[in-house]
Amino acid sequence: MAEAVVKDQDPFRCSICLDLVKDPVTIPCGHSYCMKCINGCWDEESQKGEYSCPQCRETFSPRPVLKKTTMLAELVDKMKNSAFQTASPPPATYAEDAVDVECDFCSERKVKAVQSCLVCLISFCQTHIEPHYSIPALKKHKLVHASTHLQEKICSKHDKLIEVFCRTDKKFICMLCIMDEHKGHDTVSAAAERKEREVRSQSRSAQEREEQSEKICTGLLESIERRLSEVKYVIRAQQKAAVKDAEDVLEKLEQELAELRREDAELEKLSLEEDHVHFLQSFQAHQSSVSKTLPAILLSPYKSFEVLGKSLSALKSEMEEVCKQNIMKISQEVTYAEIVLHQKPNTREEFLKCK
C-alpha cells in the first residue's frame, strides 16, 4: 500500500509524516525521509535485525548510518520560502463523487476524504489513509473525521495540536504554550473544559426551568386568587339577592296577615247582626270586597350555591390531576438530562433502557 502512495507523492514530502522533509536523509535505496521519521520506523524494527524502506520495502542490514542530505535540505528551504508552502493544490478535474472535503493527497482525480490527520494537517481518502494503519510511526498520529478546518486545531505559534484551554485568558492553546506565555495560568484539558461547560449548561438550564416553573406556579396561584375573588363576589351578590327576595316575601306576608285580620274582625262584627236582611246584604257586600286568594309564596334555597360547590370541587380535582401529570413529565425530563450528561446514551430508546 505504501507503493500506491509513492505514485501520487510530492518528491519533497516525507512519505511517513507526509509533510515537507525536515533534516532530510537519503537511505541506500534512494528514497528520502525526515531523519526523525525514518529513525522512528527503524527503532521499531531493531529487534528483527533488518531495516526496510517504508516505500519500496528494500531491506538493509546492518542499520545504515544516516547523514543529512544537504542539497535536498536547501531545496526544501527554498520551497518553504516560496508560494508552494501554503498554496492550495493545483486545479483538478473533480470526480462526481467529490464532496466538500477532498483527499489532499490525490494529484489528479479528487475523491472523498474519509479522515484527517492532526499531525500531517492533511485529509486522506480511503486509499491514502492506509499508511497510517500500517506504518508504525504513522500509527501514533491522531486521526479525526475529515475536516476542512484543520488549521484551526493547530497552534499558529508552535505548530502543535490545540488540546488545552487557558481559563485565565479564555483561549485554546497547545502544550508548549503552557510553558511559554501561559506559564502559571489556570489551564485544563479541552475535554475537561467541555465537561465543565456541559455541567454548567445543565445547571443553568435546570435553574432556568426552576425559575420558569416558579413563575408559572406563581401566575397560576394569582389566577386562582382572582377567580376566588370573582366567586366570592358572585356568592355575595346572590346572597344579597336572596335576602332581598326573602324580605320582599316577608313584607307581602305581613300585608296579607293584616288584611286577613281586618276581614276576620269584620266577619265577627257581622255575625252579631240580628237583622237577617241586613246581614245578608252586608255579607254579600263583604264577599265582593274580599281580596282574592293570594298565591302561595314558596321559599326555596338558591340551588346555584350547590352547583357552584360541585363545580369548584371538580375544578380542584382537575387541577390536581394536571399538576400530577406535569410534575411526572418534568421529573422524567430531568432524569433524562442527567443520564445524557453522565452516561450519554445515543438515543432516547437507550435512555428508556437506562431507566
UniProtKB/TrEMBL annotation:
Record-annotated RING-type domain positions: 14-57
SMART domains cross-referenced by the UniProt entry: BBOX, RING
Keyword Zinc-finger: yes
Coiled-coil intervals: 236-275
Start and end residues of each B box-type domain: 150-190
Official protein name in the record: E3 ubiquitin/ISG15 ligase TRIM25-like
This protein's UniProt keywords: Coiled coil, Metal-binding, Zinc, Zinc-finger
Region of interest (Disordered), ranges: 188-211
PANTHER family membership: B-BOX DOMAIN CONTAINING, E3 UBIQUITIN_ISG15 LIGASE TRIM25-RELATED
Tagged with keyword Nuclease: no
Highest taxon listed in the record's lineage: Eukaryota
